[in-house]
Amino acid sequence: MASTDTKHLKLRGNVWWYQRRIPKDLQDQFESQTTISESLGTGDIREARRQRNILNGRLEERQFNTPNTGRHRFLELVQEMSEHKSLNPEGWDEPYDLDKASKEGDDVFIHAYTTVNGRKDQRSKYTISIKEALNVWIRKFERDKTQDTVSKVKNAVDNFLKYLKVYDILLTDITKRQVHDYIEVLQTKYAKTTVQGQISRMRSIWTYCESLDEVSTASPFDGHSYTGGNNTNKKQPFTIEEIQWIKENVATNEPNKRLLLELGVFTGCRISELCNLQVKHVITDSDITAIYIETGKTDAAERIVPLTDDLGSRVKVLADNKLEDDLLLGFDNSSEMSRWFSRIKTENISTDSAKCFHSFRVMFSTAMQQSGVDELKAAAILGHKRGNTMTYGYYSRGYELQQLKEAYDQCVERIIW
After folding, report:
1. Rounded CA gap, 319 and 326, in Å?
2. Would you say 413 and 371 are in contact if contact means Cβ atoms under 8 Å apart?
3. What family name appears in the similarity comment (predicted)?
4. Element of type H or E holding 290
5. In the sheet where 303-306 sits, what is the strand order?
6. How confident is the model over 36-61, as pLDDT tens digits?
7. Which domains are assigned to the chain?
8. Which of 135-149, 256-270, 288-302 has the lowest mean pLDDT?
């Protein structure tokens, strides 16, 4: 007798479709979608069943790897029951039907009930996951961090989950050994500082959740050893010939990209800092035009950087045609622009990864030093740590723009372009 198994299958014309309701605990992963409807591209019932079984298996895997199922409901129930208990210690549980919950297999309700009545504390089963912790971190810090920094934190979490081969994981389930092994894998492909950065970004999420009392155990991201030297990927300057090629060939017919390039050469700013510039960050004081770097890689990155007269006039013309909160250059993804420059560099100049857009920062810093610019002024323009003493570090308001422009002009004379 032929099998009549067509569960989650529907024949439309001559083609089988996969159709099923999405399990409730997975609906948040499908943007509130409640059903899946997908053509299997075959009229053969045997092939349709095979594909259906694969799709069912993937859903089951996602369910298995999705922590925090019912987390918010559990927390709400615990809060509600605890309030009832504080108001009526003897009869607080009268409104709750434990027998019904047991018959229906409502584990979330049962766990909340046993937690509040003191039989067994089940809170550890409903702690925050790393994806939820990431979202909490983003809501807190996205206004204070650059888009590039937020993107790097997201990528750090995504890459770690891909390594673990899970969709998500509870923060408290992450072990120090897992992080150790992940570091070992990363170190076969990346420089020491890159690996440290990946782990540091996840540590920042843990630290913030710890401040919210979401986690209380030791961080699995602390106390690890890293191999390789600090200068594994130290950026190198371009040669005179390479700079000449860049000047003559890169973005010659793309004004905004050309301006990005020349701002990198003549300010030493990081590409993320330049891409994050808004029109309101263009400053004019007397005959000096400068850009205000509001946020950057470090706390010291906030600074005012003077421009050459030519760059200043081009920046002002661009700014005059936009609103204050508009991106000055119109590039909202610094990583994409970094890849744009790297592709050109790799195809035409050098495959050395130590030569990149950041090399302009190295060259600008070198020009500062070779032209004899005072180190504190150089640090103020480049956004390096400065003023360690109480006098300079706490009380000083820094240099006037005119003083910075004088130091800047002294340096610009040595820039090769």
Report:
1. 9
2. yes
3. Belongs to the 'phage' integrase family.
4. strand 288-293
5. 282-285, 288-293, 303-306
6. 899 999 999 999 999 999 888 877 76
7. 9-65 (no CATH), 71-126 (no CATH), 130-211 (1.10.150), 240-412 (1.10.443.10)
8. 288-302
User: With b meaning 16 or more CB within 10 Å and e meaning fewer, what string describes 46-70?
Assistant: eebbebbeeeeeeeeebeeebbbbb
210 CB-contact burial (10 Å; exposed 0-12 / middle 13-18 / buried 19+): middle
Structure tokens at 402: 């005119």
- Residue 304's SS3 state is strand
Residue type, 204: S
Q: Are 263 and 243 in contact (CB under 8 A)?
A: no
- What is the model's pTM? 0.55
Mapping DSSP onto H, E and C, the string for 218-273 reads: CCCCCCCCCCCCCCCCCCCCCCHHHHHHHHHHCCCCCHHHHHHHHHHHHHCCCHHH
C-alpha to C-alpha distance for 41 and 14, rounded to whole angstroms: 9
The CA-to-CA distance between both ends of the chain, in Å, stands at 82
Place of tokens 């002024």: 377
Tens-place pLDDT, residues 287-338: 999 999 987 666 667 899 999 999 999 999 999 989 999 999 999 888 899 9
